[in-house]
């Protein structure tokens, strides 16, 4: 969901993009570029739409069940922007938690929390921790595991240029941190290729 227009200075971004185009030696008046500053501003509005929002607020729907086992949503695709280069990093998030007293949230809400935390200038490590924090804060579960695997375009299309390399980060909380067997079980589920 885009942020409210008044919080996002589209005109300022348009001016900045025009400056960049001129600074790299382009002609911003040529036909293909005339609307580019507006397009980029609107794209940034979407790419940074998680700014000023709390991923925990996405976890607003709760159900009480007698489900006491791990809940895992795997392969949640996400696109974020590396805060160092403002280039995309993208990949998949795997989010697992162990409910306490049967308190669970909607499955889609986990993906929504990933979305809000990723749509901002971000670090992969911080993204991982923010998702885990949100789940801890709102569900008070017995354990949380968040694993993120991502390709960073700042490492693949520029700089060190290592296409195919990707970074894996994890945040492990509660029982999954204390109990090796439980942790191994959830990591095995994340690795498994069980498909619907
Ligand atoms: N830990 C971490 N590092 C990141 C992430 N995204 C980008 N980076 C790194 O941030 C670092 C910034 O390093 P600098 O030396 O300041 O910038 P740079 O000269 O453009 O670095 P190079 O990419 O090595 O050319 C680089 O090593 C990037 O790979 C991330 O999500 N987490
Ligand atoms: Zn970067």
UniProtKB/TrEMBL annotation:
**Which Pfam families does the annotation name?**
GTP_cyclohydroI
The EC number(s) given in the record are: 3.5.4.16
What pathway is this protein a component of? Cofactor biosynthesis; 7,8-dihydroneopterin triphosphate biosynthesis; 7,8-dihydroneopterin triphosphate from GTP: step 1/1
Please report the stretch or stretches of sequence annotated as the GTP cyclohydrolase I domain.
13-191
InterPro entries the record matches: GTP-CH-I_C/QueF, GTP-CH-I_N, GTP_CycHdrlase_I, GTP_CycHdrlase_I_CS, GTP_CycHdrlase_I_dom
Biological process (GO) annotations held by this record are:
one-carbon metabolic process; tetrahydrobiopterin biosynthetic process; tetrahydrofolate biosynthetic process
**What SUPFAM superfamilies does the database record attribute to this sequence?**
Tetrahydrobiopterin biosynthesis enzymes-like
Specify which residues bind Zn(2+) according to the UniProt entry for this protein: 82, 85, 154
Gene3D superfamilies documented for this protein = 1.10.286.10, 3.30.1130.10
- Spell out the family assignment given in the record's similarity comment: Belongs to the GTP cyclohydrolase I family.
Q: How does it assemble?
A: Homopolymer.
Q: What is this protein called?
A: GTP cyclohydrolase 1
What gene codes for this chain?
Answer: folE
């Amino acid at each position: 969901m885009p942020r409210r227009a008044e919080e996002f200075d589209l005109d300022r971004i348009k001016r900045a993009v025009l400056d960049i185009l001129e600074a790299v030696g382009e002609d911003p008046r040529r036909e293909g570029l005339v609307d580019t500053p507006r397009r980029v501003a609107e794209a940034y509005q979407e790419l940074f739409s998680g700014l000023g929002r709390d991923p925990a607020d996405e976890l607003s729907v709760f159900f009480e069940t007698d489900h006491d086992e791990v809940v895992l949503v795997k392969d949640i695709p996400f696109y974020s922007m590396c805060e160092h280069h403002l280039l995309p990093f993208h990949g998949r998030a795997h989010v697992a938690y162990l409910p306490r007293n049967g308190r669970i949230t909607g499955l889609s809400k986990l993906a929504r929390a990933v979305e809000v935390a990723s749509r901002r200038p971000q670090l992969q490590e911080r993204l991982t921790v923010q998702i885990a924090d949100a789940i801890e804060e709102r569900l008070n579960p017995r354990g949380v595991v968040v694993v993120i695997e991502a390709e960073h375009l700042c490492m693949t299309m520029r700089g060190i240029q290592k296409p195919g390399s990707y970074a894996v980060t994890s945040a492990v909380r509660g029982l999954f941190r204390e109990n090796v067997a439980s942790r191994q079980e959830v990591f095995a589920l994340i690795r498994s290729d069980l498909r619907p």
